[in-house]
TrEMBL record:
GO MF terms held by the record: methyltransferase activity
Coiled-coil zones: none
Keywords recorded for this protein, A-Z: Methyltransferase, Transferase
Record's signal peptide: none
InterPro entries: SAM-dependent_MTases_sf (IPR029063)
Biological process (GO), any one: methylation
Protein name per the record: Class I SAM-dependent methyltransferase
Native source organism of the sequence: Sphingomonas lycopersici
Amino acid sequence: MIFSPKNLQAQRTDSSSSRAVRSLRKQLPELLSLVDADGRPNINALTEILRDFNAMKLNMKFFGYELAKTLAAALPPLPAGGPFTFDIESKASTQADLEANWTRHWSSELGVAHVLHRKIWELAYVLQVIWQTGNMQPGRRGLGFGCGEEPLPSYLASKGCAVTATDLAPSDERAANWVASEEHGNPDRTYRPEFLDRATFDALVDFRYVDMTAVPDDLRDYDFCWSICAFEHLGSIEAGINFIDKAVDVLKPGGVSIHTTEFNFMNDDVTIDNWPTVLFQRRHFEEMARRLKAKGCAVAPLNYDVGSKPLDKFIDIAPYAYDWTFDQADKWRDGANHIKLTADGIPVTCFGIIATKQ
């Protein structure tokens, strides 16, 4: 390096900036604390602005939750005659979908309360496509990726489908959080006795540990495959796109692939990548569709409409239910329903993409 007065000045500036940052980091905890060392209110310009911030967040959250409960309670009785058809699209979750008979039918089938929550939409969306494409019947074979404790393997087996349910091996460090939160899949957790007896389950459902970034070549000739909010956890956006591209390889001709994930619907420039949870944008779904079509697959039309009803405009924020205290969760968890939320500060909702192997 050539030393000059300009270089020396730059070094001094960098050193001064570093000291300022270190000093600020030391002062911030004191500035942000609600009380001082003696338990008295910590009065400064920063706490004057921020001290009510958490209460404001909770106020906003719970008005949104009450709205979701009120809207769900006002729905008319579900008519007989389901399942009900819908326009098969690759699409975002919306309030209109959750108020529609097709989603409400699948909540009834699964024996869960129909609440206006995006996770209900995901379960209903996958089941709807499996049923509407003629695959919910005896003799059909399905492969579920990242199943965790979801009810779909048992429910589909109760309809006569042979199912391979998969999840990441518990020894894989990427599975640590799912194992710790008891959301990780295994044969016993996959079985749901409310749908079928254990003997029928064991005859129709097999469980395997599978890395979604390296799907074994022996998993082939399925009539359908699915995943629910799983491929955003593969470490990067590119890994997720690659999974969608390769997932159709497990299908026989005419087989259908249905996957849901996180949709960064408000920001086409900035998103989260190279992280445990990545957020896909329109351009990424377009790239998935391009690659699938290049392989000769048919992709259901991409519909990015995120809805315009009241709950479509409610974007939930942290703290979410899994971060609440025990008392909060005990009293409030059942009402914590939303269609949209922020992930690392970015508004997201669910998006499903459907492809048919030709």
